[in-house]
Sequence to fold (333 residues):
Amino acid sequence: MDTQTLKNELKKIEEKIQGANSIAIFGHLAPDGDCVGSILGAYMKLKKLGKDVDVYLNDPVPDVYKYLPHSDDIKHEPVKKRYDILLTIDLTGENRMGDIWFQVKEASPNAPVLVIDHHVSNERFGDINVVDTDAAAAAEIIYFFFEDIIDKDIAQALLNGIMTDSGFMAYESVKPRTVEVVRKLRSYGASISTVRENLDRWSRFGKIHLWGIGFSRAESIAEGRGVVSYIKRDDMKKTGTFEEDIAGLVSALRSPDGVYGVALLSEAYDDDKNEVRISFRSSAPVEVHILAKEFGGGGHPRAAGARVEGEPIEIVLERVKKRLTQELMKHDI
Fold:
């Protein structure tokens, strides 16, 4: 949507918040740079308004984003209180927040749900939904959320979100408005190099071996149009790595010439989580958010994900291979 329409839509959420005191903010499972940057940016803005705000994630904050101001304020267990408003950012549906969402929601049964997102697969599950699929990142939308409240810390959080979700401005999702928002965030003192330095700083040596395992299992499908691979829990434990070290591998699998769609599956690191995570990436004209939705997830046409509970990774892998192959073979590429 155009900028003025976005601002008008955000006004509906802002008016609700102005009349509220306690607010809970939620991000998605397996938080990425846009998720963490967006929820922290919104959190800091609402704190400046004098609101009683808590920010929640079901999963831990990846080390690479712990440099962001107030990252230690993110809660992973519910606070015993009733909230006036529940605000979700950068996620497509209730199934993308984990148990913590349902616990807090049950304790605040009358709180309206407000949704801010940029994914085309958003389920519009809120009482008010602001979904701008033209935004390169949720952080781009949060820039315009209470736009006059911003400082260096807020700017750094939002810049982190935009840089990581746009491939440092390399993806087709980047529009002229995105460039202008980045320029303004830079004027507040936010640093692109700081984002890059922190992404690089936390690379563990074992990540080399973990990615090697992923590459060694890569399988070509759909007459070379696609690639699938997987990482198991034991692979992480043997290499001294964690779930966050898998990030980026799926994009690397897409790099060979002629590959239009890839899927990377991974088991949850924790032994007590019987869960398989699926990351999809694609190039035009293949739209993988369709596949992610079929597996209970969502996302963008070119980048999407899902989680499947209660099934062995080998079974999920066969299902993913079949559907990705079908989707790739539909196109004359």
Q: What stands out?
A: The mean pLDDT is 94. DSSP finds twelve helices and eleven strands in the chain. The longest helix spans residues 313-329. The radius of gyration is 19 Å.
